[in-house]
Specification:
The longest helix has 18 residues. It contains 1 helix and 11 strands. It is mainly β and about 190 residues long.
Amino acid sequence: MNTKMIATGLAAAAFALLFTGKAHAQEYQTAHDVWNFNNAPNSAWFFGGNAGYDVNKGFGYGSFPNDVWANNWQKNVWNSVNVEFTPGVAAWGGDTTTCTVTAEIQTSANFVNGIVDVWNIKNGALGAQLGQDYFGASENYNEVSYTFNVSASSGTVLLDFGFWGTGTPQWMRVADVTATCWNFND
């Protein structure tokens, strides 16, 4: 077992006890998986509407030179960048896990109604929606973070960053996408 993870988990429990007067039942993290989708063109990313990759064009975030993007000028057309991953919930022997997705998102100044959707995919079909969050215009890269729960029966998770076209030109770039899923001991 990773002593750094145990120390981090114990520090979090101590912090909760100090500031809330209650210790969490989840005292330390026992396992975790991390997926880094740093936007290198690979089979992990797929697109809806007018979307694709920028490779080494200087549009990425931080030390990551690449980004995925979507843009649109048509009304009522869905544009998205999508990636799937499978949390190891069943392998951990648990029923559920908590996952956090972070991404750096940059948009045009007139951008409206960005959506981060989290779905489960089972047997190749879109299943239950696990969560949804929104983001707005940000002319500089801005971190978006979303936390959701996944059950062992959920299967593969689909992350969908997108927007509906408004009839005026607008765009978004998504970079440095990371998904981290934790399993906790009760």
